[in-house]
Design goal:
globular, two-stranded antiparallel ribbon, alpha/beta, 4-stranded mixed β-sheet, single chain, 15 helices
């Protein structure tokens, strides 16, 4: 695996082949933003002609009615776009970048929802007076994000859209909020290689991160090792249950994702891993004096090296899960000022933080021994036997699709930090970082 300085900016994306100066731009060039914005000024639902089969006439009418009703309840516009978004587009295949640019063209605050050519759904919002976690919405982290059948990307699309806008409308009122600005603005068509999209960071954070990434791999590891004793002690405390009030506090602060897929696609894992790294990176510059900073830096260091090594190669599903878990634990350490955040849900580490332990049988456990107490998220803690089996994370192993704990490697050995092993330490050793 590669070692060295971590990259701050995203790798340059493929540029559309050059054409003669007299040739018109393809349909995915920058002017489509104006075309889509003009269409949305007349109708809150836009379906690109290239994916005209995504919604029939009756479904369009149903979705349009639901959009208008939900927008009336929230009192902000809801604009829905169904369109392909390849890497050779003006937004370089990033749906959040497209919606951000579209918002800049329409000059209309509200909720925006995009479904791309593969049926994946992403939302963003600006000045939305509802209690909606727009940070999550912008990171594809909702159960309806992925189509139920990736081979039929638009199957049931109308119902998915209606369910999403109805959920938005049903959210309680709250002060207006906006999605995070994660990316720089899209560049003119044909200049992707010269100006790839990068995380949109304020100048003060850029200076901090330049130092972090030049000196970071050494300093983060040093900070991590300095705090490893307290981390181990904290894990032992959690493993034994802590005090009743403290465990209740952990549950109250937990970041859980109960709708995370049990059989995630490579695309979902890559995009979620990238988004979670961005979210942790954005919090590091403001972490001075935070008791969780040493752990967060070390977790970020390990996650970024791991992501750089595997995100472009197929067959690394568990490593990408590990990136997601490490990034989320780094954020949890900062949010709770914790030197040792609790391990993730053992049934599916993508569910996020565990809050309690429970003895559960593990379907397909290669050990085949007596069930042991495992850390679980709130949803898995209350699941029945069959529900437990359905909620287990399954990935491709040497013999095909298997429960994550049956796939040999560092993640099975470390048990996601649930048995007293320090996860970051084990990952650093796995990466060969001394």
């Amino acid at each position: 695996m590669r070692r060295g300085v971590l990259a701050v900016t995203a790798a340059a994306l493929a540029m559309w082949p050059a054409t003669a100066s007299a040739a018109p731009d393809p349909r995915y060039s920058g002017h489509r933003l104006d075309r889509v914005a003009a269409a949305l000024a007349k109708d809150p639902l836009f379906v690109d002609p290239d994916v005209d089969v995504a919604l029939g006439a009756a479904d369009r009418a149903r979705v349009g009615t639901a959009i208008r009703a939900a927008a009336g309840r929230i009192r902000v516009p809801i604009l829905v776009v169904v369109a392909p978004n390849p890497t050779e587009s003006e937004s370089q295949g990033k749906d959040d970048a497209f919606l951000s640019a579209l918002h800049g063209v329409t000059h209309r605050d509200g909720l925006y929802l995009m479904v791309d050519g593969d049926g994946y759904m992403l939302g963003q919002g600006w000045n939305v007076p509802r209690e909606i976690d727009l940070d999550v919405v912008a990171q594809d982290d909702l159960p309806d994000y992925e189509p139920p059948d990736i081979h039929r990307p638009f199957s049931g699309l109308a119902d998915r859209l209606i369910k999403r806008v109805d959920a938005w409308a049903a959210a309680p009122a709250a002060p207006p909020t906006s999605s995070p600005a994660l990316l720089s603005p899209p560049v003119p068509f044909g200049q992707e290689d010269d100006h790839p999209l990068v995380p949109d960071e304020p100048a003060v954070k850029t200076h901090f991160l330049r130092g972090l990434f030049v000196v970071g791999p050494l300093s983060a590891v040093a900070l991590y090792w300095a705090g490893i004793g307290s981390a181990a002690a904290g894990r032992r405390w959690f493993r034994r249950g802590g005090t009743r009030s403290a465990v209740a506090g952990l549950a109250g602060q937990a970041e859980e994702h109960p709708g995370a897929p049990a059989k995630p696609s490579d695309r979902w894992l890559r995009r979620t891993a990238s988004a979670e790294l961005d979210r942790l990176r954005d919090r590091l510059p403001d972490a001075s004096g935070n008791r969780g900073r040493a752990f967060a830096l070390a977790a970020f260091d390990a996650a970024q090296i791991l992501y750089d090594d595997v995100h472009e190669d197929p067959g690394h599903a568990l490593d990408l899960v590990g990136v997601i878990v490490l990034a989320r634990q780094g954020r949890r350490a900062l949010a709770g000022q914790m030197t040792a955040p609790p391990p993730p849900c053992f049934l599916n580490p993508l569910h996020g933080d565990s809050t309690r332990r429970k003895t559960v049988p593990l379907p397909g456990d290669p050990g085949g021994g007596k069930p042991r107490r495992q850390p679980l998220c709130g949803a898995c803690f209350g699941a029945s036997g069959k529900e437990v089996a359905d909620r287990v994370l399954r990935v491709q192993g040497p013999d095909g699709l298997a429960p994550h704990y049956a796939v040999p490697g560092v993640w099975r050995d470390a048990a996601w930090g649930s048995r007293g092993n320090d996860l970051v330490k084990r990952v650093m050793e796995y990466l060969g970082v001394e």
